[in-house]
Amino acid sequence: MAQFEWVHAAWLALAIVLEIVANVFLKFSDGFRRKIFGLLSPGGGAGCL
Fold first, then answer.
1. CA separation for the pair 39, 15 (Å, rounded)
2. What keywords are annotated for this sequence in UniProt (predicted)?
3. For residues 49 and 44, what is the distance between their CA atoms, to the nearest angstrom?
4. In whole angstroms, what is the distance from residue 45 CA to residue 23 CA?
């Protein structure tokens, strides 16, 4: 049962990290003036799904 809880905690931690990465990329995109960061930001967020 403990392993079952760790798996859920690991998925939650991964989702949090990917959400932070997506937000950082979106901030670096500077209103999509830097297109590569703008395109990477939804990719990081999509990992949370």
1. 19
2. Membrane, Transmembrane, Transmembrane helix
3. 10
4. 8
How many Cα atoms are found within 13 Å in the side-chain-facing hemisphere of 5?
A: 2
Residue showing tokens 């859920």: 8
Q: pLDDT for 1-48, tens place per residue? A: 667 788 888 999 998 988 888 888 778 777 667 667 666 666 655 554
Residues in Cβ contact with 25 at an 8 Å cutoff, skipping those fewer than 6 apart: 37, 38, 40, 41, 44
6 vs 12: CA distance, rounded Å: 10
CA geometry: angle 41, 43, 47, nearest 5 deg:
120
* Count of other CB atoms within 10 angstroms of residue 9: 10
